[in-house]
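Standup notes
- DV: blocked on the single-chain target, sequence here:
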Amino acid sequence: MAQPYPYPYPCAPFADRPIPVLDPQFCAPYPVDLVIVRKVLTITDGNFAVTDVNGNLIFKVKASFFGLRDRRLILDAAGRPILTLREKILTSHSRWKVFRGDSTDLKDVIFSAKRSSIIQIRTKLDVFLANNTAEEVCDFKVKGSWSERSCVICAGESSTVVAQMHKKISAQSVLLGKDKFMVTVNPNIDYAFIVALIVILDEINSND
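- DV (later): unblocked, structure below
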């Protein structure tokens, strides 16, 4: 497994080299289009399926096996846990920590994300890689309108977009009680990392 990219994160185009936040296997040399389907009428909240545009399963997102609302697991298509997302309880900025595999040990933290400010009209999250302990400048920033499912993820405080999301509505998705959104991940960007950010966004806004 590759270690997170060293801080500070370069705010420059990424077309020439992969940026593996989790692992190089999740970095493609071309844009990756993902379809994220959130089941909104199920007993268990927070369940997602992530597919490619042809419907092939890439990831599954499930609530903790212990039923805790503050934890989500991202599994690969074979059901193996690759990331654990855990909310820090009683924080004003809704901070989440993301760990490698099914661990919640601090040595396995990959990154954390929190609201840029306590009160927000539009969505803004600051994302810090694990070795950015000072957190003076974020490594990534998420901004946009969650209600419209229109968000971009940028490198640091720059305007360099690494991924963007928009809502995809179909008659079938409405009928089946599912919320669909499309995410385009730019070349050489870790798309497992981007999926984790989308799940955190959904959790923070659902809690609101």
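- Follow-up: The chain has two helices and twelve strands.
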